[in-house]
Amino acid sequence: MHRKLTLALVFLSTFSFAQSVNVLTRHNNNQHTTQNLQETILTPTNVNSSTFGKLFSYPVDGQIYAEPLYVQGLTMANGTVHNVVFVATEYDSVYAFDADSAALNPNPLWHTNFLNPSGTPSVTPVPCSFGSGICQLFPIVGITGTPVINLASNSIYFIVRTQETTGTTVNWVIRLHALNITSGAEQAGSPVVVCSATGNLGCELNGGGVVFGPGHQQSRPGIILVPETGFPQGVLFIGFAGDSGWVLAYNPTSLALLAAFYTDTQNHTAGPPNAQGVRPPGIPGEGHSGIWGAGGAVAADTNGYIYATTGDGYWDGVLNWGDSLVKLQFAEVGTTGTYSLTVADYFTTSDQACRYAHGLDYGSAGPMILPTQTGSATPNLIWTTGKAVSTCENPYTGYVINADNMGHTGGQFQLTAASNGGGERTSAFWATTSKQYIYNGDDGDPIRAFTLSTSGVSDAGVMATTHAFDEGTSPAISANGTTNGIVWAIEQTDDGDHQPTFQPAVLHAFNATDLTTELYNSAQAPNGRDVAGPSVKMQVPMIVNGKVYVGTQTELDVYGLCPCNSQ
């Protein structure tokens, strides 16, 4: 397959060096708390429009839905040392940029693209309308899920989706790639094909007669790298939505598929099995329990269990898992050297049938595993929200789940009040010396903070921003441990469920202990000084070493401290 490479850089691991501040996975960690507790430069005192603003931007060839990642002090293949920010686009490109200065480093440190429109076959991104009827990601789909970096092998892993045409034959292909972060070159054994098929066909990945259809499957969640017994480099876990929800487990060293779990048997709207007993893929958009979670990856606890929330779909509690939070165990099957992903426990909403009937995904926001509450009778809790209107719930409630006893149908540990309209964005967590906060940005709502204690989560928000986010927002936290907390959020100013316009993203910063205090937003400065590129939905700001990185439709924008009054 054609591959264009500009300079070389290797992608890093999920196991970070203690002396460095790195962002190697979406939401900063596998529990998805979306917090950087090593931010010593940005404070509530110096983040304001007089001393903080847009420093520079890098143009890119497609929309940035994946969260940017960051490695500090990386020695590149050519011997130079840089703080590096990594960006993936829907035009099937991955970039490595100098994270600190576009003036000194105006070009990418390396840039790899996986397309070849004029070749044989012609390799292009997937048209956004194929197989879904509407363009949730407009106008093309390439790399959507956030990569993960493994510093132990200097590798970055990501899913690439392409349309490959020879004559009148169109193949839909999904590949897993591993690049060297110092050069952009493929690592040994990379890439591997997850599935390649024509039309409405697909691949049977786990012997269960259920098809993974590359024309429809979309890896919207990011990838996580999880320590697992017997795997020194950990195991990659990747979520998908489309014909069914899937979680795939890969060996990061060999890129071998280790296990596959599906959430829907696909036989509720699809035709009968073919002569080989394999059912054709179902109809995307018809409720197939997809795993997408507002672009957040599946989560993992410190014991290696994997947690995935599913969208609306059929449920039977055996093979079909619509509107559920499933706890998956990755384990060797006996001593065979083969592995499985099986349901160890689950939670399903009590209004699941209503959600299925009305397309109200419980899994629209993804789970956040909360810090263990020592001394509590229920120390291990999971925070989840989802789509909702009063059709199924009045008032809408968020769900707090006991990770040690998930309660099955309607067995949540606690319900919390939230906005009617629900959440299609992920949440964040931060603690001071006296309070623990969950920050949540539902559709049409302000960012609200709930408190966490040994008793559980507060029934309602304890503080909120005065500014409401029409399309919701996924907040991120920067802090120096338990002090100088800032809540960062990106505002999307057009309708994310329709064809996007070129309205700019707006970066907001709030005092984390007093959300009524807005410290900064990128629309405040005169003359468009800090205006960001056009917004994309479900993007998360990435904050590290005194800078904030914002992915947009056309560019990567970088904000930080500056002599802004002189500009």
Please give a structural write-up:
With 567 residues, this protein is an all-beta fold. It has a single domain (4-566), classed as Methylamine Dehydrogenase, Chain H. A hairpin with a 5-residue loop joins strand 22 (299-300) and strand 23 (306-309). The N and C termini lie far apart (46 Å). Residues 1-18 and 276-285 have low confidence and may be disordered.
CATH superfamily: YVTN repeat-like/Quinoprotein amine dehydrogenase
Q: Name the structural class.
A: mainly beta
Specify Rg, calculated over alpha carbons.
22 Å
Q: How many domains in all?
A: 1
* CATH architecture descriptor: 7 Propeller
Structure characteristics:
567 residues, mainly beta, Methylamine Dehydrogenase, Chain H, six-stranded antiparallel sheet, five-stranded antiparallel sheet, 1 helix, 44 strands, globular
